[in-house]
Structures are given as C-alpha cells and as structure tokens.
Structure to design on (224 residues):
C-alpha cells in the first residue's frame, strides 16, 4: 500500500486491488478515530480526510500502515441490499443482445444472478459504481450518443460495471431497467449505499414497480 498526501487535509492510500481498498475503508470506518473527518473509496484508492488541528499527515500515514489488511476475516463485509428492478423499462436490450449474443431473458438472469460490490460513488450524488458484471455481460460499450435525460432509478451497464442513476440527468450507459426506490435525498443527507456494500437486483414487474414507487431503500441493521 502506497500513501500520498491529498492536499493538506487528507491521505490517499493506493491499494493492491479493490478488495484490499474495501477492507481498508471498512477498517477505518469501524475504528473512526476522533481526528477522522471522512473516508472515500474509489476502486483501488482510499482517501482519509482528517482534522489538521488534531493530527498531521505523518501520524495518519503511520496509523493507516498499521491496519492488518491481510486478515480479511477480521473485517465484516458491507451491508447486503436487495434492490428491485423492473426490466420492462429497459431501453437498450436490443443493443446488449447484439453485443453479447444473449437473449433478453438471459441478460436478466445474468444481471440478477450476481452480487455486486459498491466500489465507488460519484458522477451524481450517491450514484453507485457496482462491480463486476459476469463475463457474459462484460464489454458492452457506452452509447455512441448519450441520452439527454436518463430517468431517476434507471439501472445501466457498460464495460465491467453496472450502476443506478440516482437522479434524472444525461447519461450514456445501456439501460436495462429501473428501480422504484429512492436511493438519495441530499436535503436529508440520505445516502444508504456506501462503498463496500453489496447489491443484488431482484426482478419485479410493472405492477410492483408502481406499488413501490418512491419508497426508500431500507438499510439493513446487520451485515448479511
């Protein structure tokens, strides 16, 4: 693990892979020393923001380097979220079928059959970058021309990743469905998904979509 300063109030750790970065993030959150302001994972890097009135970069670096990341069993996995997805709202099945050679039904089976890890959050508030897609769905490129508007809750995929648009905005990912759940509320500081959490998609029909529309994603009390 390599650690470098990120400005004058954060230490940026570069880990060997996503799993090591996830373990490091979980360990920091579990310990949460008084000087720690925030922790932000982005795939293989972890930024630890600190209060410069309480600690300096050298002390933070020493503390991070002492975390036993080799012992994966000592760090509990993130929460497991079951997120409903209505694939009837998929816009790009024809494109994905052409790229993968799979039928619509097979695409849904593969997409719902994997457990994804939140490796990063960004692009728009709370947008979870979920990895990784099964090999059968990997390699579908972004749209040649991004849509001017992708609806809130839209579930998309591209490359090795899948993700959820937490608000309506332009976007170029291939849309396979839509979740009825609210995943972000900036005014209430509601961000239920964190890096290290896991996500499984559950197929629902349009009727259930309408029934669940606007409900918040419940946060499990314990990791699963």
């Amino acid at each position: 693990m390599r650690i470098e300063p990120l400005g004058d109030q954060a230490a940026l750790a570069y880990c060997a892979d996503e799993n090591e970065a996830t373990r490091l993030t979980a360990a920091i959150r579990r310990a949460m020393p008084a000087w720690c302001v925030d922790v932000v994972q982005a795939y293989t890097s972890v930024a630890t923001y600190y209060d410069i009135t309480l600690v300096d970069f050298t002390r933070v670096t020493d503390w991070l380097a002492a975390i036993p990341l080799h012992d994966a069993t000592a760090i509990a996995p993130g929460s497991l979220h079951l997120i409903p997805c209505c694939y009837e709202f998929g816009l790009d099945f024809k494109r994905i079928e052409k790229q993968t050679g799979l039928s619509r039904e097979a695409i849904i089976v593969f997409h719902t059959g994997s457990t994804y890890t939140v490796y990063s959050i960004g692009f728009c508030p709370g947008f979870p970058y979920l990895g990784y897609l099964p090999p059968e769905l990997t390699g579908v490129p972004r749209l040649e021309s991004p849509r001017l508007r992708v609806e809130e809750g839209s579930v998309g995929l591209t490359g090795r990743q899948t993700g959820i648009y937490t608000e309506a905005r332009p976007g170029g990912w291939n849309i396979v469905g839509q979740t009825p759940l609210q995943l972000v509320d900036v005014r209430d500081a509601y961000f239920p998904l964190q890096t290290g959490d896991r996500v499984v998609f559950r197929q629902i029909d349009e009727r259930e979509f309408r029934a669940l529309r606007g409900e918040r994603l419940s946060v499990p009390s314990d990791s699963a």
Summary: The chain has a mean pLDDT of 93. The first strand starts at residue 2 and ends at 5. DSSP finds five helices and 13 strands in the chain.
